[in-house]
Amino acid sequence: MNPPLSHDVIIAGCGPTGAMLAAELRLHDVRVLVLEKETEPVSSARVVGLHMRSVELMAMRGLLDRMLEHGRRRPAGGFFAAIDKPAPEGLDSAHPYLLGIPQPVIVRLLERHAIQGGAQVRRGRAVAAFEQDDEGVTVRQDDGERLRSRYLVGCDGGRSTVRKLLGVGFPGEPSRTETLMGEMEVGVPQEEIAAKVTEIQQTDRRFGLRPCGGGVYRVAVPVAGVGEGAKPPTLEDFRRQLRAVAGTDFGVHSPRRLSRFGDATRLAERYRVGRVLLAGDAAHIHPPTGGQGLNLGVQDAFNLGWKLAAQIHGWAPETLLDTYHAERHPVAADVLDNTRAQMELLSTGPGPRAVRRLLAELMDFDEVNRHLIEKIAAIGIRYDFGEGPDLLGRRLRDIDVAQGRLYGLLHRGRGLLLDRTGRLTAGGWSDRVDHLADPTAALDVPCVLLRPDGHVAWIGDDQRDLDDHLSRWFGEPAD
Question: What is the per-residue pLDDT for 429?
Fold first, then answer.
């Protein structure tokens, strides 16, 4: 017999994706349990970048100020294949920068946000097996305890146990190259390091030593071939490879973090099978070129959270949960393609180097540079909501409204009708959709309906047409 239903959603993995999803679900009073196999949060000081779209998401949930306290704003340009071009003027975001912030800080803040909202997190526990039926999912933890929930979401990384047990294919390419990456102190002057890095990067952009404060350098050095398994490198591995590439090991010592990554590129065939779903690295892996991985996973969670909550609370339209795969799978496919392209542009052969020089010339054209930055930063995404103005399906930037800023109205994770005519109403959907009548809103269209993730679901000024779209995204009106 199945154990009693104890949770609405069990999430495997408390990384950025899992923590973000838990927080999103708790906005809608969904009972959430997160199982994390690590007993303690990762403490390594790896710095990642929150691109513009992810920064916007943090602003939508009132988290941005907390993130800014721990991060450093950097220019938004120069990320596509590390081609050093400045960002063009007038990017479509109120936050046109990259926020450099340690990944453990992101996880800590998101996990705390989820727990404060009422999520439960169990560390030292992992999903060992599960069975699903028409009513729910029975999960067996690795300690033997059995739990019952309505849904299970695998946010458990590239080697996802949930994905493997689900039997979802993970096609793509295995790693062809590897890069050692770590943080450590050095024993030679900064001027000597800078000169050698400049020399080597003329032919190999994957190599680098960058100061990150306190006498510590972030070191990246390419490796010939691919190692066996996922065994972490040693300091001696770094010394040996630095001597092979640079002719010196720079006197590296006192390592803080040592890791390796390959360029494996894979995409899950399906993001949902019945009551089990995948998000983040469990659904897609790719090289870290362009710094898109963490951002892609957090954005998965933002897309999925309100849809899964709607399903659980019984007001979701029949196909709403399926739009998670329909919208996010193509986005991931595009990220995988652009990282494949970037890895080719970072290759040391004469052909790739020639293509890189040509692309660098093309990026002097504003339209080319803008397109690539919008792709990396995910602000160019447009979901297919059917025919309509270009704004339809895109996220709406953080504009001025009568009550301050638009994103401040989205903290609760509800839909929003932004009405410049003062004639419309959200009527029977007021338990799911807020209504702001504001003729001063900085829009060049009469009215917009926003989903909880900030994407524009409808544009117009006709109440009947609006009601049809409210039903499409938010189900039948309440009695």
Answer: 97
